[in-house]
Amino acid sequence: MNKLDVLIIGGGPIGIACGVEAEKKGLNYLIIEKGVLTNSIFHYPSNMTFFSTSEKLEMADIPFMSIANKPTRTEALEYYRRIVKHYRLRIHLYEEALTLMKNPEGVFEVLTNKGAYRADHLVMATGFYDLPNKMEVPGEDLPKVSHYYKEPWPYIGQKIIVVGGGNSAVDVALETWRKGADVTMVVMKPTIDQTVKYWVLPDIENRIKEGSIKAYFNATISSIEADHVWVETPDGSVKLPNDFVLAMTGYRPNFALLDQLGVALSLDEHKKPCYDNQSQESNVSGLYLAGVVCGGLNTREFFIENTIVHAAYIMNDISAKKKAIG
To answer: Coil, strand, or helix at residue 191?
Structure first.
């Protein structure tokens, strides 16, 4: 088994950026991605538009051309595919990291569903879109409940409940309502999140105000059953007829992988991994963190546009260490 200079776990935008920087430095690297290329973006809603402009998402000296100022999911998928092709990045798709360890010699050993690798350095660029925040209520495992949303067509003429008040929940509520769904929002907070995309916020607020989309605020779901849902509101329990529940409750990083190597987390509610702000190296020597995984449960702190720089920080540090060893 040949030893790599660096193994990059995660083939999203930041994992790709790390691969580009490793390529430029002449490092022996490999990217492994458990799903499709840029798996998280692939699983975004089909009609999603990014909050960031295409210029802010550019990387690897390749312009990001989009029809509108803010690119779509499809444009992003094509952009990152072209980067991988242009740089001929070494990447294995549909290969999931299962176990991670660091042997007594300081070499990382990674077992995947397809093989095993040894590497002097490891980069975790796993994002946070893989594991949804569960509501932990009876009935959440019913087939009619989903924590992901693709497109509105399955919900035409259906009574749906959208859980959440952020960007994802608002997009789902508006899109399904416009295709003929009977939409009710259940929002834990007293209002729709005021950080919702500025061009969308007035739309959802007006639809709620006019009653086109119903909404319960300061509310939570307590139970989900085959044909109805129980909602706890400030005025008491409400039983709502229901066909589908779309729980847009957010997502969390894969802490299990970090735990395997002993990455320390902050003691507050954010569980932010410990790392050096200059090199992105964690408290585990040789293990680097890149992208939104750095924010822990605070998934609004980091985005693609403000974490692209992590790639250069990491590969500069790895390259310097390699030269120092000789």
So the answer is: coil
Residue 296 reports pLDDT greater than 90: no
Q: Which of 220, 240, 242, 247 is nearest to 163 (CA)?
A: 247
Q: Given the DSSP bridges, would you call strands 91-92 and 220-224 parallel, antiparallel or unpaired?
A: unpaired
Sheet arrangement for strand 228-233: 220-224, 228-233, 236-241
Chain segment 117-159, per-residue pLDDT in tens = 999 999 999 987 778 889 999 999 999 999 999 999 999 999 9
Residue 112, H or E segment: strand 108-112
Tokens at residue 297, please? 């449960």
Q: How far apart are CA 150 and CA 44, in angstroms?
A: 7
Which amino acid type is present at position 83?
I
Does the pLDDT at position 319 exceed 80? Answer: yes
Rounded to the nearest integer, the mean pLDDT of the chain is 94
